[in-house]
Specification:
Strand content: 15-25%
Shape: globular
Number of strands: 10
Number of domains: 1
Radius of gyration: 17 Å
CATH topology: Rossmann fold
Helix content: 25-40%
Structural class: alpha/beta
């Protein structure tokens, strides 16, 4: 029987002012599974993604990813784990202004020393998929918020991570583009068997997930949305 790729057990998290975000949060994510987390602003959804990625610490409990307890890893080991096996889309995008669009998207492959020809092909494929084809050499300073978000999404997908962490990835997109991006994410996670954890306020985006949870101070509560669209087609290689 397959083991969870991600497992959170008894997670406790307090803010500097002493307020408790989570008292005892438990959650598991299987390889290739798509889970959406919804909740009110300020409830700690983004903090939860940072905890999963090892970017934030916990006050109690355990985070285990791919069989490893993150607490047993030092900073360099956690950085290596994120670089090789995770893709993260932050709300702030973190697109580097001194690099071109193509260089930003290719950065994970460059860090993993992927051969140049393969980098070029993968970048072109993903820029086409997010609607930025032909703009490889442009500077990010010329892009809108929605375009920067699409660059960040392409960068998160480029190295085929085992775990995708997505913080409001369609928040700056119009409905048509948002649907295209969620279809791409869903198809990629099916093709690459990437477990996907989506934080969103959008019921439309959440409806593409296998499971949907509401984050509350007492933990995660599974919820049912009204409808679930048909499965997305497979993405190009």
């Amino acid at each position: 029987m397959s083991q969870p790729l991600l497992q959170l057990s008894g997670i406790e998290k307090r803010l500097p002012n002493g307020r408790s975000l989570y008292a005892s949060l438990n959650f598991s994510l299987m390889p290739g599974e798509f889970v959406a987390i919804m909740g009110e602003s300020g409830i700690g959804k983004s903090t939860l993604l940072n905890i999963v990625a090892g970017l934030d610490t916990v006050d109690g409990g355990m985070v285990r990813f791919d069989g490893q307890d993150l607490a047993d890893l030092d900073d360099a080991q956690r950085t290596k784990l994120r670089r090789e096996r995770m893709g993260f889309v932050f709300q702030a995008f973190h697109v580097l202004p001194h690099l071109t669009i193509a260089q930003n998207v290719a950065l994970p492959l460059l860090l993993l020393r992927t051969p140049g020809a393969e980098r070029t092909q993968r970048v072109a494929t993903l820029l086409d998929a997010v609607g930025l084809e032909g703009r490889e050499n442009e500077s990010p300073v010329n892009l809108s918020g929605g375009e920067l978000q699409r660059v960040a999404i392409a960068r998160a997908l480029i190295h085929k991570p085992r775990l995708l962490l997505l913080d409001e990835p369609t928040g700056n997109l119009d409905p048509e583009t948002a649907a295209r991006i969620i279809t791409l994410i869903d198809a990629r996670r099916r093709d690459d068997q990437a477990a996907t954890l989506l934080v969103t306020h959008s019921a439309v985006a959440a409806a593409r997930a296998d499971r949907v949870f509401q984050l509350r101070p007492d933990g995660l509560v599974q919820r049912q949305l009204q409808s679930k669209p048909a499965a997305a087609p497979r993405s190009p290689a």
